[in-house]
Amino acid sequence: MLVIGDFSAKVGRRELSAMSSVVRLYGLGRTNEAGKQQEDFCLEHELALANTMFKQYPRRLYTWTSPDSDIRNQIDYISIAQRWKTSLFNCRTYPEADCETDHQLLVATLKVRLAHRQRQHNIPPPNLKKLKEAKAVQFAAEVTNRFMALEAAQDYVTPEDLWKGTKTILLKVARETIGCVKSQKKKKWISDETFAAIRKKREAKGKDNNRHQELKPEVKRKLTVDKQQQINDSKVSNHVCNVSSQRRAKI
Fold first, then answer.
1. Which of 8, 37, 124, 158 is the residue whose CA sits 20 to 30 A from 243?
2. Backbone angles phi, psi at 103, to 5 degrees
3. Rounded to an integer, what distance in angstroms lies between the CA atom of residue 108 and that of residue 92?
4. How many angstroms separate the CA atoms of 110 and 53, rounded?
5. Is residue 155 part of a domain?
6. Widest CA span of the chain, in angstroms?
7. Cα–Cα distances in Å, from 30 out to 27, 59, 75, 190?
8. Of the candidates 59, 144, 151, the residue with the CA atom closest to the CA atom of residue 106
9. Is position 67 within any domain?
10. 91, 107 in Cβ contact below 8 A?
11. Do residue 103 and residue 128 come from a single domain?
12. For 93-146, how does the pLDDT look when each residue is reduced to its tens digit (9 = 90+)?
């Protein structure tokens, strides 16, 4: 967690004996009342002030300059959660940055290492096309038997647990009875003839510019034909599925 902004607070420079988990050695100036409140806020929320952690030239510490340039204070802060402060590599101001303000640009450098999350493999769905005739009777009988055991215990379980049990029974019986849909590799829509033309165009590039320019429209035309063929095949497949669904509905 990061808390960033202009707090109009001065936490001040600390000696080794006076530093805390919030304010380290490299603050600037003297503490004021707002600075004490800022430190209390950080203590309550387990934050540390990044500005005070790194040794810098004074011009890299102050974050505000008065209009007459006589007064310079450190009143803007980047606060970071204590558990993440080891991710900080630097925190400093850039007085040379043109920000059209009397505040200086304050920048912190962090490197966050995120935990690796293992990808969950997709579970294939049940093969519902096989749920007919004898398989359908077998599925219904298995589900009924297992639901009887679930109903006996429904007075002792929450609705959420009851739903999870119902879902588990339906999926488990379906996989045991009719199996799962086998995953199919996606068919490539670019034909072998088009791939051959693409290879020829790549080989001609830089060697035979005239041949390369001749092959460019040819490859584009072949890709357009292949793409249109894929769209047509998809329309035919969807039409067949719709006709089959209408026939089953009439039956």
1. 124
2. -95, 150
3. 7
4. 13
5. yes
6. 92
7. 9, 16, 11, 71
8. 59
9. yes
10. yes
11. no
12. 998 887 778 899 999 999 887 777 766 666 778 888 888 888 888 888 888 888
Which residue blocks in 111-206 are alpha helix, DSSP H? Answer: 133-152, 159-178, 192-204
Q: Where are the beta strands (DSSP E) in the chain?
A: 2-6, 47-49, 64-65, 72-73, 76-81, 88-94, 105-110
How many CB atoms sit inside 10 A of residue 118's CB?
5
Q: Return d(Cα 70, Cα 89) in angstroms, integer.
A: 31
Residue whose pair of structure tokens reads 């003297």 in the numeric block: 30
200 shares a domain with 147 = no
- How crowded is the C-beta side of 90, counted as CA atoms within 13 Å? 9
Q: What's the pLDDT tens digit per position in 175-207? A: 888 888 776 555 577 888 988 888 888 888 878
Looking at the structure, do residues 25 and 82 belong to the same domain, yes or no? yes
Residue 41 inside a domain? The answer is yes
| Together in a domain, 46 and 139 | no
Nearest Cα residue to 102 out of 58, 57, 70, 54: 70
Contacts of residues 28-33 at CB distance under 8 Å and 24 or more positions apart, as own/partner, are 28/58, 28/61, 28/62, 28/73, 28/74, 29/73, 29/74
Contacts of 153 (CB under 8 A, 6+ apart): none
Are residues 235 and 196 both part of a single domain? yes
Structurally, the chain folds into a number of domains equal to 3
**Residue at which a domain ends, from 110, 138, 167:** 110
In eight-state DSSP terms, residue 126 is B
Number of residues that this document lists for the chain:
251
* SS3 category, 103: strand
The last residue of one of the domains, among 62, 90, 110, is 110
How high is the pLDDT of residue 37? 92
